[in-house]
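Question thread 4412

I'm putting together a teaching handout and wanted feedback from people who do this every day. The idea is simple: show students a protein as raw sequence, then show them the C-alpha cells that encode its fold, then repeat with a second protein so they can compare. Below is the first pair exactly as I plan to print it.
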Amino acid sequence: MFSMKVISTVTVAALALFTCFSFARPTTSDTVPLLSTRGQPTCGNDPKIAAGTMTPSSLLDRDLVPRRANRIFWCAPGSATYVLFTITYLVDPGSAVMNLVNAAFTTLMQHLQQTGDGLVQNGLFVMQGANNVELYVANANNHQQTYGVLAAAMWALRNYMNRFGSGKVTFSVYDGANQVAEGSID
C-alpha cells in the first residue's frame, strides 16, 4: 500500500511537471512587445524610439537635448536609418566641417532627384571641403550603402551639428539593424 501511494504521488508530480512544460511556448501575439528591443539603443533626438526602427516624419520637429555621451545615436526622420557617431574634436559652428556636411547632403539629394536611389558607386563616397577637411564613407560589414540611406545619414549628422556644434567625427551608418557604412570627417 505504501509503495502504491509513493508511485501515485511520483506519477502525479511528473505529469504536473510535463504539463507546465507543454504550456511553455513562444508568444506570437502582435500586442506583446518583443523582448529583443530591451536594451536596444534609442535615438538621441527622440528617446522613445529604438534606433533602427522606422521613425515618424515628425522627428524633424522634435527639440530634445540629448544626454552627453561619447557615442551618439541620431536617427533620420521617416526611415530606419541612424548614425552612431563620436565627435572627436569640436570646432566652430560656421566651420568647414559644417559646410562639408551641408554640401554632401545637397549633393546626395540632387543625385536622388536626378538619378534615383541605388548603390553608392564602388561602395565609396568621398568629398573634399575647405581647409583640407574630407568626408569619407565606405561600405561596411559586407553590406552596401545606397544614396538614400547615405542622404538620411547626412541629414542626421547635419541635424545634430546644427543644434549642438560640429567637429571632426567618426561614424557608422545603420539601415535598420544592419551597419552599411563607416565614415569619418577629418
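The second pair follows. I'd like the answer to focus on this one:
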Amino acid sequence: MSKAGLYIKMFATFTILSIGGPAALFYFQPTDEELFKKYNPDLQRKSLENRQGRQQDFDNFVTKLKEYSKSDRPIWEAAAQDEARTKANSAEEQKRLAAEIQKRREEIKRQAINGQ
C-alpha cells in the first residue's frame, strides 16, 4: 500500500472516530427526563422532594467557587483557608454554647436551692 493510501485510511479512521464517537454518544445517551421516567414512583417522589435542597447546595458551591476564584491564590488554597476559618468559627460557637449551657445549669441549681 502506498503512503497516500495509508494517509487516506488514517484520515478516514480519524474522521469516523472523532465525529462518529461523539455523535453516537449524543444519540444513545438518555436525557434527564427519560431517566427520571424510568425511576419507580417512590424514587421519583424522593427526587422531587430533595431537588430544592440539592439545587441550593449546588448554588452555594458555585458561589463559593466564584469567591475563591477572585482571590490571587489558587482555588484549593483559598478553599482550605475558608474551611479552616469555618472550623475555627464552629469551635468558637461550640465553646460559647457550652458556656451558655453551663450557665443555665448553674442558674437552675441556684433556683432549685433557693426554691426549697
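Top answer:
Good format. For the second protein you could add a caption like this: The CA atoms of residues 106 and 112 lie 10 Å apart. The radius of gyration is 30 Å.
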